[in-house]
């Protein structure tokens, strides 16, 4: 009975999912929420609040404590010695900075101490910038100028220089703290950092997550000399190898065998980013399916038959862990924006959902651009939403209308921003924490004029990781695994209920709100 483990190290939580590929069943699913389960780190949504100048960081030791709590929980639900293959995924772009002690510590982990205790002295930077960080505007401009313009950076790396991407973040660290930078011997992504610990070796970065750095050349999937040079001196020495998603790095580290009862022969497959992993876990790793993920960020992505980059420069090309590439558009103002409007009126999710039945599509012209923090799709510096509509709506007196406007604004904006992929899906596959909400799913169906389908397994990131491990270690075809595990949730299809032009006016208002703001900037 070969069990396969997938780990999902996301923004707000760390989760694990075990599949049994013989019976096609999910054996166990557990999760640790950073805010609730590790309150000592004071990161209610998984990151340190009140960062200055657009900085959003998290404590990497929190991720390690969460991993240990997670494995402890998991070992109580299932015999971990039955697991033969492991992989995982991390929130993309976040980076961990390590001094030269790292290389010794990672392959001699001592099971009588915690990971956090052993890794704390290896950090050359105490905190890790994550994907929500928007502090690197200047560095993006410097990298762009040095490489020869946006188009050149985009041709090479699949994206123009982007604030949250790892390269610009590394450059800012190099400029603001040159001593700590010169003390850095290795820079890992969240995914490759955790993979290194699980396998007890300094693990490679995969092409899926690596493409989110502005350092990897997507034509040949190698580090790009010109991008490295534009970012920081001698950077090549600090970066791990790059490898494709089907690489197995070796057996699990003894630390986890001794502490949690894993089998010494369990093989670890290289980790990837949460979105590439979700592509696999939604059964969408072959071109033809479009996925919208509603996690902390909202993302829109699809496997592509050929490399397609965004001419506006807001979208991205990443490696597809199943081979080839995927295109993706990411929205910062996802779940936390929906929560912000919900909490403003003291609503819970049931009241939030009920607001859609007291209001109607198009919201009588009450429109919101729901950006509570700087957005990247499109790029705009806002700290509060822009509103258009009746006086009462504009002064936040209408709770239900505000909730509908937030969600309609998010998805009308998503449709406008993802047009460059030239996909007209008949079905949209919806995943992530907010996908369970039928009212949100209905707005997605109406705005995109497509059926919306959810899958029976909700943790598509962890599932994708477990499927990749089963594919790489046991040679089970991803399509067969998809047939086993990526089945639709029964009776969950949401059909569009509105006519095709219902949201034309909303789209025009969103465009006008954006241009008025750009005119002010
Ligand atoms: P991540 O993987 O980025 O950590 P998740 O995919 O776990 O995030 O999604 C977490 C989010 O799901 C929460 O921030 C919350 O806003 C949202 N969520 C949870 N339940 C609901 C619901 N019933 N309706 C809408 N959103 C929800
Ligand atoms: C994708 C992105 C986010 C993070 C966190 O480019 O920044 O989706 O991966 O989920």
Describe, in plain words, how this protein is organized in 3D.
With 521 residues, the chain is an alpha/beta fold. It has 2 domains: 3-276, ATPase, nucleotide binding domain (Nucleotidyltransferase, domain 5, 2-Layer Sandwich); 284-454 and 490-521, 2-Layer Sandwich (Nucleotidyltransferase, domain 5). It contains 22 helices and 25 strands. The strands form 8 sheets. Strands 1, 2, 3, 5, 13, 14 and 15 form a 7-stranded mixed beta sheet that branches. Helix 15 (335-344) runs antiparallel to helix 18 (399-418) and helix 18 (399-418) packs across helix 19. The termini are far apart. The model has no long low-confidence stretch (mean pLDDT 96). The structure holds adenosine-5'-diphosphate (ADP) and D-xylulose.
Please give a handful of descriptors for the protein shown.
binds adenosine-5'-diphosphate, 521 residues, 2 domains, six-stranded mixed β-sheet, Nucleotidyltransferase, domain 5, single chain, alpha/beta, 22 helices, binds D-xylulose
